[in-house]
Amino acid sequence: MIETEIRTDAELIELSRMDPEMFGLLMERYRGPLFHYIRRIGRFADEDTEDLLQEVFIKVYRKLNEYTEALKFSSWAYRIAHNHVIDHFRKLNARPKVDMLDDVEWGRLIAGSVDIEKELMNADCVEKIKTVIRDLPIRYKEVLILRFIEEKEYEEIMDILQKPKGSVATLIARGRKILLKRMEEEHVDCH
Between vectors from CA 141 to CA 110 and to CA 103, what angle results, nearest 5°? Predict the structure, then answer.
């Protein structure tokens, strides 16, 4: 068996194109990150997240021959996951809600979004800010999650969301501004 740790994404893609069974190695590499990303941008139980993840992997496999190295494979896979989740919500005619984050992830989002040191955070503050973040429009939630929880660089966010760098920067800045304003309106103080 080929160890995924010693194979690059490009090597695994080529192997998967020649032998469909090798695609399992790519799935294994990206199962965790994509599972958490799908769960974070939507309000899904683990079983529903797993179902969506399997659908994403089917799409990735079907489009594997279309993939070019112009993008990082991870960005390309995240883009497919992102689009699939958004399509899923359109079908449900529902707005995604972000509340499937654990407290450490909320802390990272909050600290990154409002420049609050994690050490100063407390559980009560995290709960209050979760409520504020849940109500943010999806376009702001998704960029804040990609930047501060997934810790993606601007270029990767651009690739995933298919938006220019200026738009990504604007969405992050506006998302942070709206978050701060709503925290102020809700009298959420984490100091």
Answer: 40
* E strand spans, 30-134: none
Q: Which two tokens stand for residue 140?
A: 């702001």
Question: Across the chain, which distance is largest between two alpha carbons, in Å?
Answer: 58
Q: What is the pLDDT of residues 34-82, one digit of tens each?
A: 999 998 887 778 898 999 999 999 999 999 999 988 889 999 999 999 9
Contacts of 38 (CB under 8 A, 6+ apart): 44, 49, 52, 53, 56, 81, 85
- What's the CA gap between 81 and 85, in Å, rounded? 6
CA-CA distance, 71 to 27, in Å (whole number)? 18
Cβ atoms of 71 and 94 closer than 8 Å: no
User: Topology of 4-92 in CATH?
Assistant: Rna Polymerase Sigma Factor; Chain: A (1.10.1740)
Comparison of pLDDT for 128 and 32, the residue scoring more: 32
Of the candidate CATH numbers 3.40.190.10, 1.10.10.10, 3.30.465.10, 3.30.428.10, the domain formed by 103-185 belongs to: 1.10.10.10
pTM of the model: 0.66
Q: What region does 93 belong to: left with phi over 0, alpha with psi -120 to 50, or beta?
A: left
